[in-house]
Amino acid sequence: MEIHLPSLPMMEILSYLDAYSLLQAAQVNKNWNELASSNVLWRKLCQKRWLYCCMFTLELHGLETWKQFFFDKTWQEQAKTRAKPEDFTYKEIPVEFEIRSHPRYISRHGLTRNGQGKSAVCMITSLNRISTWDIQEGAMTWISPKQPSYIALMTTLPEMHIAVTVDMQSTIKLWDCHNREVLATKGLFFCYQLLQAEFTKDGPIVLVGDILGNLYIFRIPDLHLISKVNVFPYRIDELYFSPQKKWVFLMGPRLHDLTKVFYMSSLLKTSEFSAPVSTILQVPVIRKVFWTPRREDRITLMSLILPQNITKFDTFDMKVEGIRNKVTIQGYLTASFLLAEHEGIPEYFGVSDKDVIVCSTRFSLLLFDINGVRLQSFQYCPEEIWKLWVDPVHVIVTCDDGTLDVYAWEKRSLLLRKCYRVLNRGHQPTSGFILETLCDDVSIILVINNSPNPWCLIAYTLNVCS
């Protein structure tokens, strides 16, 4: 005899279950299956894991239900973890382009089980053109018409297959790289310094920083100016968005120790705020910044204490506070520690969603909790670590010879598990300087400068694995 509980209490009970438990509940009977497959429950799981999920997310991925999204996204994330070195296809793409025009991913869909997933990048391939490249094929798929002025900066918005460029005449352009057309053009009338596009819950935007410390936010796709704010008395050098785009950390010239964290709603919804809301994090000589993935309000700063040259990690929690109808924000120091001198000076670092800090020195990969307790270490010698990629699922170490070590964050512990090593299979000289490592669900790309020869992209593309 089946027992039928009212739907509302059942939904409340099911809302506390994880994905595995929901699948088990769905096996009880037809009524339980219908409730456990509810879009409301699976969207909640998606939001918990990936923070930002709206109906537009489903449209972008060509899916109808949040249950589909959850399992497709999870499968994509774990594909590289399950893979073996022989599952990667190797391609070398020699391309001539200028040093500030590093390639950026333009593809919006990850690996799919039917092999339809594509990995594509956009880059400046001459002084006056941008082009897109199919990484699997190692071939150029589109090149723009020659532009009247040299293109200096480029960024992309993969969710919409859009590239954004700024040229030497301070003209910003939005390119639809799918339909191969210009969506909007705007003269900026100021000297640019920084360019970045982001997809926020209030819609897609592009941010431009000038040499006077002003930040401009434009709406995509029409380049309507949403807001302008003077951040620093000097230029803005770097900016870092929190995972859900609730916060943006901005940094000026390092010698001036200029930092600010803005509450993004105050920059995007100007009619609701009398002025942009921001605060300063008092940390001198900041070298790197990393927002904790899958958490909205936590940021870790890696700084250098001079003249001793000791590395320090500071973790802050950002909070919105209301005082007499006035919104303010504060950064509260949650944890802090100094790296022992014998550990060396890290060049790169990242943070897991379990608050584990991973950093790389020249010959070591080190793991600490946010209070400085050493958790794990991996030694590299005679190889040298040149680059470090950290995301919520993987850590990828790039060695000086182009070798890649792929690690995965353990699900039930704070540690890293080494998955496999991908050797440099090509003919590019190891004397080349590895400028950058990029990664998505489908590919891992190394950007190598073999001066005076043309630059080269080395791409490892993952084949479909079940």
From TrEMBL:
Residue ranges annotated for the F-box domain, each copy included: 1-45
Keywords annotated in UniProt: Ubl conjugation pathway
Biological or metabolic pathway of the protein: Protein modification; protein ubiquitination
Gene Ontology cellular-component annotations: cytoplasm
Pfam families: F-box-like (PF12937)
Protein name: F-box/WD repeat-containing protein 15-like isoform X1
Organism: Mus caroli
